[in-house]
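Why Gfo/Idh/MocA family oxidoreductase? Reviewers of the renewal asked for a concrete example.
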Amino acid sequence: MRIGIMGLGRIGAFHAETLSTLDAVDSLVVTDPVAAAATTAAERFGARAVASPEALLAAGVDGVVIAAATDAHPELILAAVRAGVPVFCEKPVARTIEESLDVLRAVKDSGVEVHIGYNRRFDPGYVAARKAVVSGELGPLTTVRSTTLDPEPPPAAYVAVSGGIFRDCAVHDFDTIRWITGREVTEVYATGANRGAEYIAAAGDVDTASALLTLDDGTLAVVSNTRHNPRGYDARLELHGMTDSIAAGLEDGLPLRSVEPGATFPGGTPHHFFMDRFATAYRAELTAFTEVTAGLRPSPCTVADAVEAGWIAEACTLSLHEHRPVSMEEVRKA
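Here is what the prediction returned.
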């Protein structure tokens, strides 16, 4: 099949490299607002570079991967859907929840599959954790702990348009919690602090945050995030049930140092960035998209799924600013 890639920044180029090695992909067509980026990618991966998204869609692609700037996501998703081309788009669907809802309404009855990129759904540890929940081997869950700690803050220009730590970073945890537990969030309480990087505070955001989520069956989920974890990129999950407790991400690349006498775990090189922590997941995610494109499976993470994670981020952002619990019903009515 022929896959088109719109956007060739860091993650777009990474996806191009991955796609170029998949057996199901015969050729790539690439485009980027910066022509040199498209030319470079074409040379590296044997792709065809074109001048615009319109030209890419006219090139007979079977599927489209969108890795462009967030502001461009809605327009590019809808252009591909109108052309009848299956879409993989990196999260988020759009810059705001309102724009995301517009996209949801537009694609709902289109018959075109749209796959939103939440890579933890494809990480082997997280997949095993979900199977453990679905099988019932943990018993009723009591507590879920989901952690995302970045090694360093993103640039000021990125922070200014990110929407805040809950919409940009913790939203991965929110999607993970919904997907693995199969439950919905009913209420949140969120807080945050500024521990460094003054430009984050100047943007009205926090660089360290926690959220307590109440799920619809009474399970409690605790989400922890920070932009300052210089030991490395830490993304992991704990599930505690009435029968057993398990963890995903508890492996030798975990960027955590034990001070227990004689302890040698974790003993590997700490994960430095999200692309090395989730390299296997990204490959599995794009392989899944080729299966979506071939009509072998439905989207494993729909626009509706992404919107639900977005609503939780909205509730946490409101809770942070107003220092109070917020129900999901309240934000949906706002």
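The chain has a mean pLDDT of 97. This is the kind of structural detail the renewal will allow us to pursue systematically.
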